[in-house]
Amino acid sequence: MSGLVFEASALRMQASPWITRFAPLLPANSRVLDVACGSGRHARYLQSLGLQVTGVDRDRTAIEDLQASLSGQWLLADIENAPWPLPGQQFDAVVVTHYLWRPLWPQILASVAPGGLLLYETFATGNEAYGKPSRPDFLLQPGELLRVCAHWHTIAFEQGLLTEPERVVQRIAARNTEGSVVAAYPLSPASS
Fold this sequence. Notes:
Layout: E1 4-5, H1 9-12, H2 17-22, E2 31-35, H3 41-48, E3 52-57, H4 60-69, E4 73-76, E5 91-97, E6 99-100, H5 105-110, E7 112-123, H6 144-148, E8 153-162, E9 167-175
Parallel strand pairs: 2-3, 2-5, 3-4, 5-7
Antiparallel strand pairs: 1-6, 7-9, 8-9
């Protein structure tokens, strides 16, 4: 089954406070990859900070709208069923929100340049009590992002219940302190 992208109307319009909190760590003109960028709520915010944004999504309408309204590189790609569209490319930051497809962990981590940031926020176990997503495949296990980024410097990590709308999330801001990405990383039982 494919990964899940969730953008409730209350969350669709503005950038996540998690992203707005840590994006200022990036110098002007930094290159940022927005994975599963959707309608571009984070891309628009990041560009307003003077960052160069590349977005990838499988939604043709969303990508065409971004191509028509924003500068940047907007890639139409099914990142779950086709090859990674940016092999070997690295960015000063990679942003992922409301998206989880565990087989992409190696590509996402490899896309963060040494010294770069990973800003990741998505739904976690416990969200099933508040609505969708509710399948374990689409919910991070407790501490899963910490395990995925175990060899990096964790700037901040949170997991728990958020309100308006109520949802359970897990999020991390981590810096790639290694010269290369660790090829093997611990996975939770739900990811196998």
